[in-house]
Amino acid sequence: MFIALFAACCLDIAVAGSYKELENDPTVLQDVTAYTVQKNEWRLGTGITYGLLDNTEISTRIIPLIAPLLVSNASVKVTAIQTPKLDVSLRSAILFRSIPPDIADLRIFAYPFAWKASWLMHRKFSLHFGSSLLKVRVDGDVAVDSLGEYLEPILGSNFDEELVNEIGSNINLVSIDLYLTQTQLAFDYRFNRRDSLVLTADTWLALNGTVIVGADVVEGEDTEVAAGLASRFKVPVKDGFRTTATVSWQWSWQRTHVRVGLPIPVSDAWLVAIPRAFSVYWLLGGSRGAPLTAAAMGNGEAP
After folding, report:
1. Total-model pTM
2. pLDDT (tens digit, 9 = 90+) per residue, 251-288?
3. 3-class SS letters over the chain
4. Could you tell me the residue ranges of all domains in the chain?
């Protein structure tokens, strides 16, 4: 499959000709914007996305971990508001990760909900902004000081320090509900149809939750109850400590899209931004590839 996709990529680039001279298409950038794939269009890359409608897509993404630690996930994204200059989308997902008992005996459920707006400021550049709320439920037997590394593939950041400071390091976890809020910002400048500069910045703002530690099941004649210590906490995330930013160059041909860049070291968590800086994906099916008219681009004139 990968050989076939690579061959398709080479063919797409070879026959592109003066593709960069066609009208700009801001909608080929979907992962950091409010845009979705077109109806009946497929996006293949580190995940699989399918367009149910012109403004609705479903997807699953592949998280590069060893097999026993894979994250199962599914999401739906709807561009609820569509205007010539401003689009607003809503996205919801479910993620599940199970750690085998011989490693940590841990089960993690995550339910993100996000909104994002894409503002076509000019035919050559757009601003994208939004926020998300993430609920995470953790059940199992694991030391709190190692919980962050198991959550990191889902959260995109390691919160070991905050969790240890609030809960303690020598406590085995039984159940925890976490709520995290994040702001998301992106900007892309399109030099032409093929070449564009993409900047992104995601910042975690706060962490709060309820935790039960050292619990055990106490059995009665007709009931079972969990006995243990419970506490609630709310932690403002350190200023800048959980900001991840990237700067990348994107090449967009008719079907093949390649993004290459670098994370910006604005915080100690900059390494987790590397997957955002690199991307290769193909847009197959749909009607993509035809030059956009001025009407489709909101008249294509400077404001």
Report:
1. 0.78
2. 988 888 999 998 887 666 666 677 778 888 998 887 76
3. CHHHHHHHHHHHHHCCCCHHHCCCCHHHCCCCCCCCCCCCEEEECCEEEEEEECCEEEEEECCCCCHHHCEEEEEEEEEEEECCCEEEEEEEEEEEEEECCCCCCEEEEEEEEEEEEEEEEECCEEEEEEEEEEEEEEEEEEEHHHHHHHHHHHHCCCCHHHHHHHHCCCCEEEEEEEEEEEEEEEEEEECCCCEEEEEEEEEEEEEEEEEEEEEEEEECCCCEEEEEEEEEEEEECCCCCCEEEEEEEEEECCCEEEEEEEEECCCCCHHHHHHHHCEEEEEEECCCCCCCCCCCCHHHCCC
4. 2-300
